[in-house]
Design a protein that fits this description.
Blueprint lengths: L2 H19 L18 H13 L1 E5 L1 H6 L9 E10 L2 E8 L6 E8 L2 E7 L5 E8 L5 E2 L3 H18 L4
Antiparallel strand pairs: 1-2, 2-3, 3-4, 4-5, 5-6, 6-7
Protein backbone atom coordinates (compact mmCIF):
# COMPACT_ATOMS: atom_id res chain seq x y z
CA UNK A 1 0.00 0.00 0.00
CA UNK A 2 1.11 3.49 -0.68
CA UNK A 3 1.60 6.06 2.02
CA UNK A 4 -1.38 8.18 0.86
CA UNK A 5 -3.75 5.17 1.03
CA UNK A 6 -2.66 4.42 4.62
CA UNK A 7 -3.08 8.07 5.63
CA UNK A 8 -6.54 8.21 4.06
CA UNK A 9 -7.65 5.04 5.87
CA UNK A 10 -6.29 6.30 9.19
CA UNK A 11 -8.14 9.59 8.73
CA UNK A 12 -11.35 7.71 7.82
CA UNK A 13 -11.11 5.47 10.92
CA UNK A 14 -10.46 8.47 13.15
CA UNK A 15 -13.52 10.21 11.73
CA UNK A 16 -15.63 7.13 12.46
CA UNK A 17 -14.31 6.80 16.02
CA UNK A 18 -14.83 10.48 16.91
CA UNK A 19 -18.57 10.24 17.76
CA UNK A 20 -17.90 7.20 19.98
CA UNK A 21 -15.41 9.24 21.99
CA UNK A 22 -18.13 11.72 22.90
CA UNK A 23 -20.30 9.03 24.54
CA UNK A 24 -20.36 8.64 28.30
CA UNK A 25 -20.85 5.46 30.27
CA UNK A 26 -22.30 7.10 33.37
CA UNK A 27 -25.69 5.41 33.18
CA UNK A 28 -24.68 2.09 31.65
CA UNK A 29 -23.83 0.16 34.78
CA UNK A 30 -26.65 1.11 37.16
CA UNK A 31 -24.50 3.49 39.18
CA UNK A 32 -26.40 6.63 38.32
CA UNK A 33 -28.05 8.39 41.26
CA UNK A 34 -31.49 9.96 41.01
CA UNK A 35 -31.23 13.61 40.09
CA UNK A 36 -33.64 16.08 41.58
CA UNK A 37 -34.42 19.42 40.08
CA UNK A 38 -35.66 20.25 43.57
CA UNK A 39 -34.64 19.06 46.99
CA UNK A 40 -36.77 16.07 48.05
CA UNK A 41 -38.63 18.24 50.60
CA UNK A 42 -38.95 21.01 48.03
CA UNK A 43 -40.38 18.51 45.57
CA UNK A 44 -42.99 17.37 48.13
CA UNK A 45 -43.91 20.94 49.06
CA UNK A 46 -44.29 22.01 45.42
CA UNK A 47 -46.44 18.95 44.67
CA UNK A 48 -48.62 19.65 47.74
CA UNK A 49 -49.12 23.28 46.72
CA UNK A 50 -49.90 22.29 43.13
CA UNK A 51 -52.47 19.67 44.14
CA UNK A 52 -54.06 21.25 47.24
CA UNK A 53 -53.35 24.95 46.89
CA UNK A 54 -55.66 27.67 45.68
CA UNK A 55 -54.95 30.12 42.86
CA UNK A 56 -54.54 33.67 44.08
CA UNK A 57 -52.97 37.01 43.15
CA UNK A 58 -50.40 38.80 45.31
CA UNK A 59 -49.85 42.56 45.33
CA UNK A 60 -46.61 43.44 43.55
CA UNK A 61 -45.19 45.91 46.12
CA UNK A 62 -43.33 43.53 48.45
CA UNK A 63 -42.46 41.04 45.73
CA UNK A 64 -40.87 43.76 43.59
CA UNK A 65 -38.42 44.42 46.43
CA UNK A 66 -37.48 40.74 46.25
CA UNK A 67 -36.91 40.85 42.49
CA UNK A 68 -40.20 39.34 41.30
CA UNK A 69 -42.05 41.68 38.96
CA UNK A 70 -44.92 41.39 36.55
CA UNK A 71 -44.68 44.87 35.00
CA UNK A 72 -46.54 46.42 37.96
CA UNK A 73 -49.44 43.97 37.86
CA UNK A 74 -50.41 41.49 40.57
CA UNK A 75 -48.39 38.26 40.71
CA UNK A 76 -50.24 34.97 40.08
CA UNK A 77 -49.49 32.37 42.75
CA UNK A 78 -50.80 29.08 44.03
CA UNK A 79 -50.89 29.01 47.82
CA UNK A 80 -51.74 27.16 50.99
CA UNK A 81 -52.53 28.97 54.26
CA UNK A 82 -52.81 27.68 57.82
CA UNK A 83 -53.38 29.23 61.22
CA UNK A 84 -51.14 28.46 64.21
CA UNK A 85 -52.26 30.26 67.35
CA UNK A 86 -52.21 33.99 66.62
CA UNK A 87 -49.93 33.60 63.61
CA UNK A 88 -51.09 32.90 60.07
CA UNK A 89 -48.67 31.07 57.78
CA UNK A 90 -48.91 31.12 53.99
CA UNK A 91 -46.67 29.45 51.42
CA UNK A 92 -47.01 30.52 47.80
CA UNK A 93 -45.60 29.05 44.62
CA UNK A 94 -44.99 31.23 41.59
CA UNK A 95 -43.36 30.64 38.22
CA UNK A 96 -43.26 34.26 37.10
CA UNK A 97 -39.48 34.06 36.51
CA UNK A 98 -39.84 30.71 34.67
CA UNK A 99 -38.56 28.84 37.75
CA UNK A 100 -40.30 27.68 40.92
CA UNK A 101 -40.10 30.40 43.56
CA UNK A 102 -41.45 29.80 47.05
CA UNK A 103 -42.72 32.77 49.02
CA UNK A 104 -43.17 32.17 52.73
CA UNK A 105 -45.40 34.66 54.52
CA UNK A 106 -46.22 34.97 58.19
CA UNK A 107 -48.69 37.46 59.62
CA UNK A 108 -47.90 38.46 63.16
CA UNK A 109 -50.30 41.11 64.39
CA UNK A 110 -50.34 43.93 61.83
CA UNK A 111 -47.02 43.00 60.21
CA UNK A 112 -46.29 40.58 57.40
CA UNK A 113 -42.90 38.88 57.10
CA UNK A 114 -42.20 37.57 53.61
CA UNK A 115 -39.25 35.45 52.51
CA UNK A 116 -38.35 34.47 48.96
CA UNK A 117 -36.77 31.05 48.67
CA UNK A 118 -35.71 28.62 46.00
CA UNK A 119 -36.83 24.99 46.14
CA UNK A 120 -33.68 24.04 48.04
CA UNK A 121 -34.90 26.33 50.84
CA UNK A 122 -32.18 28.94 50.49
CA UNK A 123 -33.48 32.32 51.60
CA UNK A 124 -32.96 34.79 48.75
CA UNK A 125 -34.64 37.93 50.13
CA UNK A 126 -36.80 39.03 53.04
CA UNK A 127 -39.34 41.84 53.38
CA UNK A 128 -41.25 43.36 56.31
CA UNK A 129 -44.64 44.79 55.35
CA UNK A 130 -46.62 46.70 58.03
CA UNK A 131 -50.36 46.94 57.43
CA UNK A 132 -50.38 50.77 57.31
CA UNK A 133 -46.98 51.27 55.73
CA UNK A 134 -44.70 50.45 52.86
CA UNK A 135 -42.73 47.23 52.47
CA UNK A 136 -39.03 47.33 53.26
CA UNK A 137 -36.19 44.86 52.95
CA UNK A 138 -35.14 43.23 56.21
CA UNK A 139 -31.48 44.17 56.56
CA UNK A 140 -30.96 42.33 59.85
CA UNK A 141 -29.88 39.01 58.34
CA UNK A 142 -29.89 37.18 61.69
CA UNK A 143 -33.53 38.16 62.32
CA UNK A 144 -34.52 37.34 58.71
CA UNK A 145 -32.83 33.94 58.78
CA UNK A 146 -34.37 33.09 62.18
CA UNK A 147 -37.88 34.02 61.01
CA UNK A 148 -37.35 32.12 57.74
CA UNK A 149 -36.26 29.01 59.65
CA UNK A 150 -39.36 29.27 61.87
CA UNK A 151 -41.60 29.51 58.81
CA UNK A 152 -40.09 26.58 56.91
CA UNK A 153 -40.05 24.58 60.17
CA UNK A 154 -43.80 25.13 60.46
CA UNK A 155 -44.35 23.90 56.90
CA UNK A 156 -42.06 20.89 57.35
CA UNK A 157 -44.10 19.97 60.44
CA UNK A 158 -47.51 20.15 58.71
CA UNK A 159 -46.48 18.90 55.23
CA UNK A 160 -48.01 15.54 54.37
CA UNK A 161 -45.65 12.64 53.68
CA UNK A 162 -42.78 13.86 55.84
Amino acid sequence: MTQSVVARRAFFLAALALPAGACTTSGLFGQSTPRYTLSPRGDRLVRWIQTSGKDNMMAPDALALMGITNEGRDIPVRQIAQQDGNDRFVVSLTNIRKIHDLIFLRRQGDVLFLHLSDTKFERLASVRYPRDGKPSLITDTAFAENDFQQQIGFWFKVMPGR
